[in-house]
Design a protein that fits this description.
- By secondary structure, the protein is α/β, with parallel strands linked by helices.
- The protein has 2 domains: 129 residues, 3-Layer(aba) Sandwich (Rossmann fold), CATH 3.40.50; 83 residues, Arc Repressor Mutant, subunit A.
- It is 50% helix and 13% strand.
- Strands 2-1-3-4-5-6 form a 6-stranded parallel beta sheet, with helices on both faces.
- It starts with a strand and ends in a 13-residue tail after the last helix.
Amino acid sequence: MADIRVLIVDDHEVVRRGVRTLLELEHDIQIVGETADGVEAVNATSRLTPDVILLDLEMPHLSGVEAIPRILAACPQSKVLVLTSFATDDKVFPAIKAGALGYLLKDSSPEDLVEAIREVNRGESRLHPQIARKVLDELSHPADRPKTSDPLTAREVEVIRLMALGLGNQEIADELVIGESTVRNHVSSILSKLHLANRTQAALYALRSGLASLDESESPPD
């Protein structure tokens, strides 16, 4: 099995060195580069095509939240794992909405970081417990408007199930043999019908409502 190619993005050299030292001990992880700001991160991603980008949010020139969509545009197959000290709503939800697949705080254990890299590389979401509580708390507050009576179509159910498994738009398009623009349209329709703000809310809605299971061997209910 090929090594997981990791790019470390943090404006503090001591953090980059510490993370590199930790990850170099792992047999299945290869550090392909380090950068100190968001602009460099986008350029390095395009050049190095890493599997996982460990990304801080507070950086010069271009913040992590601003960098995430540019990183994913430069290398759609890369996965973003946020590693930061910030757990405030104004950091968490924009980062997740921008496309981060994982969100860890810097007080996480080395073991948690290594396992998170492996999970995100497999396309699975990984949230620090404090961040997961924030997401669930947000979902626990019902929208001001009731859910629309307009039901999801069969295709939209397929799309939201794959979203819940952590697949991005292009991966969903490949799985369903449709265009990526069609997937984007389906995602927009799903969010509108369910009065949800972002993909993470839609994925958690699918899991909580039984439309999807994290066990890919299970089929969604009829």
